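Protocol step 6 of 9: fold each sequence in the batch and record its C-alpha cells directly after the sequence line. For illustration, a two-sequence batch is reproduced in full.

Sequence one:
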Amino acid sequence: MSDSLPSPLTSNSEKNTPRLRLLVLSNGHGEDIIAVRILRKLQQQSNPPEIFALPLVGQGYAYQGLDIPLIGSVRTMPSGGFIYMDGRQFVRDVQGGLLQLTVSQMNAIRHWVNTQKNSGNRIAILAVGDIVPLIFAWLSGVNYGFVGTARSEYYVRDEVSLLKRKDKGAWWESFSGSVYHPWERWLMSRQRCKAVFPRDSLTAEILKRLSIPAFDLGNPMMDALEPTIPRPRFYGAHIEKQELARPLVVTLLPGSRPPEAYANWHQMMVAVSAIMALFSEQEFVKYTSKTVVFLGAIAPTLHIESIRQILESQGWRPYTQSPIQIPDADSLTFQQENGYFILSQNAYNDCLHQGDLAIAMAGTATEQFVGLGKPAITIPGQGPQFTYAFAEAQSRHLGQSVILVEQPSQVAKDVKSLFANPDRLQAIAENGVRRMGRPGAAKRIAEYSMELLWNE
C-alpha cells in the first residue's frame, strides 16, 4: 500500500472526548451493501462510533441486520435508482415524488446534525455512492468522507492512455483530466472532506495527482465472497487430464430486478442452447470436458418457479443427482443430453467460485465474477438497468475480462475462442484482480475513516 496513512485507531480510546456519531448516506441497493460491509467492520473497532444511516434510494433493506437507526424518509422510486441511464426514468421519478423526497431527506440530515451538535457530540458523515450523497455530505456542514462506488478511470482509460472511442460525446466523460468532473472534485477537495476512497488503484492515483485526499484501500465489493466449498485444485503430472475430466461450469447471472431479470433469463436460454451445440463439435471438446454444467445464480428477489418454467420450456427436465457440489439443499437440478442445469438461490458465493466463465446481464454480480479472475460474456438487454449503454460502459470498465456480444446466439463463438487460447485466459485472470482489487477493503476503510474523520 503506497499511501502514507495514519496508524489506525491509535488514539481514539485515549481521548477524553464524546463518542463519535457517524451518519452514513448511500444511494442504491449495491451502495447500501457496501456501506453495511464497512459499518460491520466499524462496529468491531475497540471504540466504535454510534452509527446512523439514511438510504437515499429505496427502502434500505441491507441495513436491517445492523440494528442501527435510520433517519428520515425512505421510498422506492419508479426507476429503482437508474435515472442516469434514461431521461424518461428521471421524469417518472419526479412524478413519483423525487423532489419532495430529496427535500425531506435534506431536512432530516440538518435535523440530525443540529440535534447531535446541541448534545455536544462529535459528528461526521460517510457518503457512499456518487455525487448525490457527496453533495448531501457537503451541505451538512460537518466533516465527511466519501466512498466512490460509481466511477472508475477504467471507464475512459487504461494504465497507458485514454481509450479510443467511436462515440463523439465520449470526450465529456474525462474532458478535465479525470472521470470525476471538476464539480465533483471540488466537493472532494473541501477542507471538511477528510478522505476519499476510490474503487481502484488507477482512480486513486489520478485523484491524488489532482490534490484530492484519495486513499487506495481497495473495493469492498470483493469482500465477503468466500465460498462454502473450495473449488478443487489439481496438482502433479496429470493436471491437464484431471481438469478435462471435470465438467465445464458456466455461471448464469441474470440480475436481481424483476421483471427485467426474467426477460434476461429468456435471452440467456438462447445462449445456453448455442453452447450445448458446441459439445457436439469434436474440435471444441478437445479443449474441455464433454460435460457442461450451467449454474443459475438466482437472486432471492426472483420467483424461482418462473425461472424453472422458462428452463423447462427449453427442454430441460428434472434430474435427481447434482453433477457438482452446491451447498444449497433447495437447489433444483435439470438434465438435457450431456448438459446439466442447477438453479440456486442460497449459494451465491459458491456459484461465483464454481464457474469457469459467466454469461452475465447484471451489474455488481458481473464485476464480482470478473474480480475473481474469470471471463464474463455479457448480452445487452432492454433495461432499465442492463441496457446496451450500461453493458458497453461495463465492458470498458472491466476491459478484456468482459466480452460484449450483440446477440445471445453469438455467445458460443466466444466461448470456443476463449478455451482455444489459454494465454488469453491468464491475461483475463490478472486483469480482473487488478481492476477489482483484493479482499479486505471494508476493514481497511473502516479503520482509516475512523481516524481521519476524528481529526479536525
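Sequence two, same batch, same settings:
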Amino acid sequence: MNNIRTKILFTVVLLASASAQPFREVRPEAVGMSTERLERFTDQMESYVVNKQLSGGVTLVLRHGKIAYFDAFGYRNIESKDEMEKDDIFRIASQTKAIVSVGIMILQEKGSLLIGDPVGKYIPEFSETTVAEKTDDGYRVVPAKRKITIRDLLTHTAGIGWGFGAGAKEWEEADILGWYFGHRDKPILHTVKRIASLPMDAHPGEKWVYGVSTDILGAVIEVVSGLPLDRFLEDELFRPLGMEDTHFYLPLEKRDRLTTVYSSSENGITLAPDPGERVGVSMIGQGHFVSGPRKSFSGGAGLLSTAEDYASFLQMMLNGGTFKKQRILSRKSVELITVDHLGSIKFTWGDGVGFGLGFSILEDLGQRGAMGSVGEYGWGGAYHSAYWVDPQEEMVVVYFTQLIPAKNVDDFGKLRALIYQAIID
C-alpha cells in the first residue's frame, strides 16, 4: 500500500511540475521543422564560442506554441568555465520597451488613458517642451510645434533621443546621457521630469528618433496606476504570464544565474568591467543589477529575464493577447500594436521596416533582404539580444547573449538564416 501511495504522490508531483512549464517541447518535425537542419544552427553557435566571438547564449524557438528548439551554448562565465544553462538570466536592455509599451495598452484598455493623450496631462512638466535646432554657429532652442503624445513615445516619434543631439551640452550638464538608469538612487519619475526641461532632438511627429521615450512611458504608468513600475508589471504581466525570473533588480538568491557581460576586442572577447561605465550611449559593464540602489525602474532598458519568460510574453502577443487561458490584452489592441504607425516618417535603422507601438514591423521582405515574413515584429537589446514574432509562421524566436560592444560577429544574420532554413512544411 505504501508503495502505491508513493507512486501516486510521485506522479502528482511530476504532473504538477509539467503543468508549471509554459511550453511543451516536441520533436521539431512535429511542428514543421527539421532536427537535422537545426543542428546547423547549433554548430554555428558553438563555433562563435570556439572562435572567441561570443561567450555563450540561449536560443528558444517556438512554433505553433510548442518548443521546436531550446539550447544553451558556451559559458555563463568563461573564467570559471561555468557552462550556460537554459534558465540563466540575462540583461535584456531595450527588450524592456515592448513590455512597458504593452503596459501602456493595458492602461488604455482599463480606461485609464488614451494613447492620443498629451504626456503633459499626466506629467505636467511635459505640457510645454522645446527643441534644439542646429544653426551655423551652434544651436537655438525653440518651442516644440505641438505637444508630445503618448503615441509619439510609443512610436519613437516624440523627437527625444539619448541626449546627443544639437543640445547635448544641456543634457550633459543635467547628467542625463545614454540609455542606462540602473545606478540612479531616485525614482524614474524624478529623472523624467528633468528630461522634460531639456531641448529635444526634433519636433514631435516629424522624425523617428530612438532614445528615452519608453522611460517616459514607464513614468506615465507609475503616475496613472499609482504603483511603482515594477509592481505594476508584476501584477499585470509577470505574474499572469508566469514570468517568475523577470526583474528590474535581481533577487540575491538568483545572482548565480546572472550571465556575465563581455566586450568584443581585437583579441576576441574580454570581460567587461564591474559595474562598468558609460561609453557613448551605452553602459559597458556588468551594471548595477545586483548591488545597485534598486530605485530607478527603467522602462527603456532596465529588465532582466530568461529566454522562457520572454517567450511567454511574446507567445501571448502571437496568441492575440491570451496565454494559458488568461486574457492580457484584447485582440484589437494587439492588432494596433503590430502595424506600422510611421506613415511618411522614415524608419532610419533599416529598409523595408516600419515601427508600431513598441515593436519594429517588417513591411517589405525584399527591401530588407533577409528571411522572414511580412508582418513580423520584434526588436533587440544593447547587450546583443534579439527576438521576433512571425505570425505567418506561428513562430517566436528569442536569442540571448551578453556582449557589448558587439563587433566582428555575424550571429544575428546567421540566426535568422539558419532558423528559417529549418522550416520544412
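Proceed to step 7 once all outputs are recorded. Observation for sequence two: The longest helix spans residues 2-20.
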